[in-house]
Amino acid sequence: MKRCLPAMMFALAAVALGGVIWPIHGFLSKSAVIAGAIGAGLTLTALLWTRPVLRVLPPAVFAAIVLVFCLPGRQTDVQALTDRYLINLRSYEGPRYLWGGEGGMGIDCSGLPRRAYRDAMLFQGLRTLNGSLTRASLDHWLHDASARLMADGAGARLVLLAQDGSGLHPDLAPGDVAIVNQKTHVLAYLGEGTWIEADPATHRVIVHDGASKETPQLGNDVVWLRWRELDGKQHQ
After folding, report:
1. What is the model's pTM?
2. N or C: more exposed end of the chain, with fewer CB within 10 A?
3. Which parts of the chain sit beneath pLDDT 70?
4. Domain ranges, residue 212
């Protein structure tokens, strides 16, 4: 049995990695990440159990991961979080549109801002040891949200700025999102009149100024939203 443990560990690690890189984010991919990571960790523990010096390594790694999400909450630097979020958004320019996708191999309209923002919270949470952000990032990873669910606030993860609006919202800020086309499509605002979206018409992620196509500037049925942590209020 012990001879099979290395192969089992690598197989389980591959399952976890597959769940991470699989472009379509959903129950199966998340289950693969969780089950694969736990299984690989337990198998590695069994392999190292006869070596007292090394047997504590897997539990220590597990404890470090758990600690990341148990850090105390701190005041969030909204500007730094926004800057990282915008960098993440622009990093996805070009990949193909894929319904249900949330990665560089394919991404959809709601997955684009959610993935960019989730990664920004994790990055800033780790950089500043802010448990509020790391926990929020995990919460976003666990709970998907379609365009329609985002329009409804995605479980209070988004703050409503205005609904059924037309023209640019007067308080629009970089990083805000607009839900258009009867709550079926999501765009993210980059600032200075520039938008980014995973566009099903062109089958890729594009950045544009909104002048050449129907956008929130021209639409008559827009829901304007802002991520909760970026609305100027602190949530510990």
Report:
1. 0.87
2. N
3. 1-2, 165-168, 210-220, 233-236
4. 78-230
